[in-house]
Amino acid sequence: MIKIDSKTNLEIWSEELTKIYGKKKEAVAAVSKIDLRMKPGIHGFLGPNGAGKTTTINMLVGAISITEGAAKIREKKAGTVAAKQLIGFLPQDPVFYEDMTGEKYLIYMGQLGGLQKKEARLKAQQLLDFFDLFKARNREIGTYSGGMKQKVGIAASLIHDPKVLILDEPTANLDPMGRADVVQKIKELSKRVSVFVSSHILSEIEQMCEDVTMIDNGKIVISDSISNIKRSFISNLYFLDTNMNETLVDQLKDKDFISKAWCDDLDGKIHIIPEDADKLRDLLPQMLLENKAKLYEFHRPELSLQDIFMEIMMKERGNN
Amino acid sequence: MNNNKGNTERKIKSSSKKLNSNVLQPVKSWLSRNIFNRTAIIIKKTFQDVFSFKKTIIILILGVIVPLIFILLPTSIDFGLISPSHAATIIGFALIFPAFFWTLGLVFTIIIGTSGAPLIAEEVKSGTMLLLVSKPISRIKIFIGKYIAVYLYGMLLSFFSIFVIGWLGVFVKSGNIDHFFSLIPFLTALYIYSLFILFLFTSITMAFSSIFKKARSASILIIFIAILSYIAFLLIRTLTGPFYATFQLYHFDLGYHLGNVFILFIETLNAVPPSISWQTTFAIITGVYSMESSIDPDQNINLGGLEKTNYYLPVVSLLLWILIAALLLVFGMWSLKKREISV
Which of A218, A229, B206, B235 is at a distance of 20 to 30 A from A100, taking alpha carbons? Predict the structure, then answer.
């Protein structure tokens, strides 16, 4: 986890952010003591469905109250008008005024963001152009496709020139083309505004983000840059695949230079975390010969964020 | 001399320009950006949502239909032979009850309730409120914006309803435009009363809209309150007889208080003179009058109307319900401020 003591230069900061629903015996913590440290740039917020991502985001944008702890957007208390002036927000499954045209909706949102009507119209047209919606600007939002709606939602979040965009599952419910389009636009936007984006589609987060925070059951399980996370995982994990995985895994478990070895349920291969990788490489040919085993595969995998996420989640849930 | 004058004018102009650009412009800009603009935007959008020409025409027809029946009841008076003020009195007699009970009563309160109830509850339920509250505008401004829009719509509705029933009264009864001008004090009393009832029912509606999850539940409760006020307490008053006064049930009788305030405006503006004919109806429907004739105790002369029950001073009824409406307004704002908004 990134430890930054100073709140300055942080786009989003939270300390022990907690949301509890219900009272006394029926109390359930949807989010528990989350410490967020978001630096300028693009930050992914990951977690399975029901992990507490939306609840956390709703606290950051002031839609729901904070039970305990505190959160700030660029040093402004989350939920205040001053903090909301700094953020642009796209909720998960946004709902629009379907009978308004795209342009009128953006002008309305711009005026609520403090723009004069002329400024709002100009800004709306620029954004409609950026999001390839200019031709559809006079159509009612109700007639837009899912991708168009999502883009008009992001445009609405940008209309008052916020400093931090908070996007909750912006690609959920989109087809592959729509997803790629929205991801591309977010990447372009991240050059001029910081983006805090939640998703459970990890491949997209991997494409977009430098830093990520993963949560599960309302708690942070890891928060670091993607490169650091990958480095720490790749250095330890080896995949071995033979025709005698069951026999070999038992032998590996007994070796003092192996910290962990198991047969993975998903791919059936032996996953090995050695304490001394050189010893493993030296010993392996001898083990294969002694057991007369056929070697199919032995390598250090390039783990995707998805793999790491799965490993972490399984470990967390195993511990719990 | 002229040159000096020109210089002075230029100086004044330049200093006024400076004042405008240095002081007033930023103030205007700040006010426009922070105070008026965002609330005004909410008012405009909400008004557009609430107002529809077709709906307004239907409401006007509905509001006018019962007064029209009262107007159409035959009278033996020849309007060609009487003075405009006398004609206005006769028309006022015909309109006073249906205007109170129907146009500004059941129809008006139910329309305000059903128009205003979805404005917060439905937006929260559908999810549009989530986007709204994430914008840099306080929830109190959102509430006030929606509140004012409903109030303005109500003002518009009551203005046209009152204008139409006044005009219909004159047109059907006498057909003389001069009689309409004599009716203005009565119509003004109705309009001022409508502003009061609008304040009360907009506050009730918006408070319910802030706390209820379903707009339908809020609407049903408002319709229930309207029916309770105008019809249920009439039955309670009739059925309980003397117990109504003994057990001081009038404290909870909104119909009585509304009638009391209505009569206050009618009396203050000398809108319709006292008469047993219309006061009897108010005695039965609101309990503001007793069934005894009003007698001057000093001279023992019949004053031409019914004695008031005087459970409450009319001004106290007015202030009490203005206070309740104001408290509901604050409660509504507070409820929205504290409301958890998520889809």
Answer: B206
Cβ distance of A87 and B134 shorter than 8 Å: yes
Beta-carbon separation of B135 and A64 below 8 A: no
Contact A214, A221 (CB under 8 A): yes
Pick from B33, B130, B340: CB nearest A114: B33
Alpha carbons B194 and A95: distance in angstroms, whole number: 36
CA atoms within 13 A on the CB side of A203: 4
Q: Is the CB of A112 less than 8 angstroms away from the CB of B130? A: no
Q: Cα–Cα distance between B70 and A113 in angstroms, integer? A: 52
| Interface contact A156, partner B, CB < 8 A | yes
**B residues 289-328 lying closer than 8 A (beta carbon) to A:** none
Distance from CA of A318 to the nearest CA of B (A): 32
Task: Give the least confident one: B20-24, B211-215, B250-254, B266-270.
Answer: B20-24
Q: How confident is the model at residue A3 (pLDDT cuts 50, 70, 90)?
A: very low
User: How far, in Å, CA of A199 to CA of A12, rounded?
Assistant: 17
Is the ipTM higher than 0.90? The answer is no
CA distance A305 to B266: 77
> Residue holding tokens 């949102």?
A109
- Report the candidate in B242, B263, B239 with the shortest Cα–Cα distance to residue B312: B263
User: Rounded distance, CA B258 to CA B100, Å?
Assistant: 9
Among A204, A207, A96, CA closest to A146? A96
Residue pLDDT, tens place only, B13-54: 555 555 555 667 776 666 655 555 789 999 999 999 999 899
Of A61-75, A299-313, B278-292, the range with the highest mean pLDDT is A61-75
Task: Tell me whether B140 touches chain A (CB under 8 Å).
Answer: no
Give the residue-averaged pLDDT of B135-151. Answer: 96
Rounded CA separation B269/B254 (Å): 23
